[in-house]
């Protein structure tokens, strides 16, 4: 059975490894998955050069020239104002105009969120967007087979109201259902206690609203300790708290190992154990590099933007493209809207 | 040179190991440190029984009977209302009345914070109290010799204003200066970016105020990744964010090791390494058990309350008593007041 074709716009500029890795990932996707078309957006000369070096399915690859891009050190607002032809903005416009169905970028996160805000339309009932990411959790806890959870928002909306948190819960649930093929993902609010009256007023109010929202498997509040444990499939918080948590996760595995070395440097047996683990430690860092897993979706808009990590290589870009295509094929925006509370 | 005597009230009830461990820790302190006196507060029969089993300096130990206590599962407000003779409340009253100079408890944290709020007086210029804890950080970064940082608030004040965050910064700086003998501790605000304009309005405003506050070594904003790294000696945030972070730290080392086992279970070399490390892993859990290190001070009141972990054994209780005595001897409350912004 043929799937309906899906076109993904790839912003090829702004990643740490330059356009070649993005083009390589998109090209591979056109070879692997016949229903996915790639629209490459960025400097045409660099894209053509890259395409000349990699196998790809020529009929399923198109190029759109964008002469500019936002560099990692730039301020998003000023950069997008100054560069209307920036690749991330052009890609978003192509998606809005229907030239592509969703987009992937490994460039500047803030510029990506802002390009969405300036170009896409919020889903009716959603007031603020959220950036979501998957992260690895402890295995063998509860009925979960999947060692990954989704957390949102991790930085798009720094001040979230109760209604925003409810919308984030809905967005996360719909996304997890489609992407991880988890029919009925558990959703929890992050708070400073599991009791429903714990937390700031916005969290307490969101808890109350989520308790009575049909179609969502809300399991109440979880605490910080439940993030690495993986108690919930979807963890909901505002972008300030989520960003702090995520960056802590990023740094913490490295630090634990350094602490271990420090604390036990005099114990020869432990030293030997650590030495034997050293290549494993490098791999732990990869496993805990959440952004490698299909990237971070910006949720809440009528169109989907998958933000791949700046360090993404071809495989990560391919994965991000696959995830974007699956979201499009399963009509993520409508799935979110159907779950939102009636106004 | 003799130090001025300091009396520490020990709430002996409510810890996970019962009164014996608390009494044992306090008793040891009277043997080790001649200037510290212990006032044991709780069920007299149990205290007398415990004292009969442990060596102690009888002239430096006193007992005050309190027939009731707050159990871990109780709601703090209701419990303190129903139990005016609860040990934690009686101990706080004895401190207020000058029978003791500071107090230590291994009981219910919320009840401890509330007992302070009901009994002590906020330092002029402080509007909200904060619970602070030390936690272990990566070693060898920056000029720090100490592998521990202080983070506050971790749960006393869920909604903190900009002025509250400024007061927390002052309280943390004064405490770190006295307890860790760090003459000029660095202080940072936790945010979702290092730039001073990053974060919710309260954080941005606090950053501005701290920049112009004399007597404080404010280094600006830090991110989540800087918590385990130990970039700052004192990390300042509201009690909601701090509580989530702290509980994440608590769970994460365990989880990283479980993940490692999962990810590499097929690699024999890694397995062997992990097996060799297994006793080390147990010790990592201890090292990352922040509350073992002198306990968590409740800061902002004219009197000091050190909340030891519920699991505290005698050694941890002794340490908490020592820390409390050092804070008293160095007049923590005045040190805080001297650093606060002029109203």
How would you explain this protein's 3D organization?
The first copy, chain A, is of the alpha/beta class and 343 residues long. The first copy, chain A, folds into three domains: 1-126 and 300-343, Isopropylmalate Dehydrogenase, CATH 3.40.718.10; 127-253 and 286-294, Isopropylmalate Dehydrogenase; 254-283, no CATH class. Chain A is built from twelve helices and eleven strands. Chain A has helices at residues 19-32, 44-53, 76-82, 87-96, 109-119, 162-179, 201-211, 226-229, 239-263, 268-287, 314-329, 332-339; strands at residues 6-11, 36-42, 61-65, 102-105, 130-136, 148-152, 186-190, 217-222, 234-236, 296-299, 304-307. Chain A has an eleven-stranded mixed β-sheet with strand order 3-2-1-4-11-10-5-6-9-7-8, with helices on both faces. In chain A, strand 2 (36-42), helix 2 and strand 3 form a beta-alpha-beta unit. In chain A, helix 1 packs across helix 11, helix 3 (76-82) packs across helix 5 (109-119) and helix 6 packs across helix 12. The two termini of chain A are 39 Å apart. At the A-B interface, helix 8, helix 9 and helix 10 of A face helix 8, helix 9 and helix 10 of B.
């Amino acid at each position: 059975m043929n799937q309906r074709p899906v076109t993904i716009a790839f912003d090829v500029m702004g990643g740490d490894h330059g356009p070649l890795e993005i083009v390589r990932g998109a090209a591979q996707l056109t070879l692997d998955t016949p229903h996915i078309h790639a629209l490459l957006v960025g400097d045409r000369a660099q894209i053509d050069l890259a395409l000349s070096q990699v196998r790809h399915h020529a009929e399923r690859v198109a190029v759109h020239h964008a002469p500019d891009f936002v560099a990692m050190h730039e301020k998003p607002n000023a950069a997008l104002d100054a560069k209307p032809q920036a690749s991330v903005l052009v890609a978003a416009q192509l998606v809005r105009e229907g030239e592509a169905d969703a987009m992937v970028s490994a460039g500047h996160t803030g510029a990506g969120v802002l390009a969405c805000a300036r170009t896409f339309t919020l889903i009716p009932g959603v007031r603020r967007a959220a950036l979501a990411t998957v992260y690895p959790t402890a295995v063998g806890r509860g009925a979960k087979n999947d060692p990954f959870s989704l957390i949102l928002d991790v930085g798009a909306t720094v001040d979230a109201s109760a209604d925003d948190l409810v919308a984030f819960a809905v967005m996360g649930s719909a996304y997890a259902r489609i992407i991880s093929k988890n029919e009925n993902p558990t959703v929890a609010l992050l708070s400073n206690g599991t009791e429903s009256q714990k937390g700031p007023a916005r969290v307490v109010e969101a808890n109350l609203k989520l308790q009575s929202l049909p179609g969502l498997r809300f399991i109440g509040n979880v605490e910080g300790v439940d993030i690495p444990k993986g108690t919930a499939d979807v963890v909901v918080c505002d972008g300030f708290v989520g960003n702090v948590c995520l960056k802590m996760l990023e740094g913490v595995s490295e630090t634990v190992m350094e602490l271990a070395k420090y604390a036990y440097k005099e114990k020869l047996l432990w030293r030997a154990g650590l030495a034997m683990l050293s290549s494993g430690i490098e791999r732990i860092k990869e496993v805990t590099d959440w952004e490698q897993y299909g990237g971070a979706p910006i949720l809440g808009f009528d169109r989907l933007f998958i933000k791949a990590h700046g360090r993404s290589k071809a495989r990560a870009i391919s994965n991000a493209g696959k995830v974007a295509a699956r979201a499009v094929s399963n009509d993520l925006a409508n799935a979110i809207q159907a779950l939102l509370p009636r106004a």
